[in-house]
Amino acid sequence: MHYAVILAVAFVASGLTFFSGFGLGTLLLPAFALFFPIEQAVALTAVVHFLNGLFKLALVGRHADVGVLLRFAVPAVAASFGGAWLLFHLSDVPPLLTYSVGGYAAEVTAVKLVVGILLFLFALADVLPSSRDLSFAPRYLAVGGALSGFFGGLSGMQGALRSAFLVKVGLSKEAFIATGVVVAALIDISRLAVYVPALMREADRIDYALLGGAVLAAFAGAYLGKVVLSSVTMSSVRRIVAAMLFVVAAGLVSGVLR
Q1: Which residues contact 252 (CB under 8 A, 6 or more apart)?
Q2: Is the whole model's pTM more than 0.85, yes or no?
Q3: pLDDT digit string (tens) for 76-92?
Q4: Which candidate, 169, 180, 168, places its Cα nearest to that of 121?
Q5: Which residues, at least 6 apart from 31, have a Cβ–Cβ distance to it below 8 Å?
Q6: Domain-by-domain residue ranges, the chain?
Q7: What number of CA atoms fall less than 13 Å from residue 74's CA on the CB side?
Q8: Phi/psi zone of residue 19: left (φ > 0), alpha (ψ -120 to 50 degrees), beta?
């Protein structure tokens, strides 16, 4: 049963997030957490996310906009350390609200509330006719990268903020997807530097067949996304991003997402 759940989530999420630029970890982590301790679930999700990112890099990486990448990725990676540092110091702050739904414990924290509201505003701006054609000047890319990296280090939601910003920069659909893939890969490298040693200590308890199956399912979803990319317009990509932003924002504000 757990094979079917995790492989299905990996396939569907990878296909969707090929266009949105985020969400694979958000959807896959809860699936892994149903069957594994949370620390293993986080590490296994990171491995699938990273390898899937490398696969997507091979598929579309050549379309990345180097100028946008340099202006955005460098401050994003640097600011992620600041966010992680703040998270460490905020870890003992009690949640604003805790409640249970059907045995599932949800927590609303200040970080989740702030990031959730921010994502909601980005999503709302993308669907309002008055702001749909808004784009950011290149001089604001460093600010967007720093915000994405900082909140990514603080909450793990860097992909959502990255896509919310890059979708407004005026990139083509190919460049938007590829640039996001490169930034995600850089962030994942820094995360795996922490997770891999922990995974090695649990090496004898890892279900490698399941991990490999999840990776292959994610590859298949990404490849399907690449196949249909030519028939998708940038406006469709923006609608997918907005929809995913609303979902993640609701999950954070309600405390359902970890």
Answers
A1: 112, 113, 115, 116, 119, 155, 157
A2: no
A3: 888 877 877 776 666 66
A4: 168
A5: 5, 6, 9, 10
A6: 2-254
A7: 8
A8: alpha
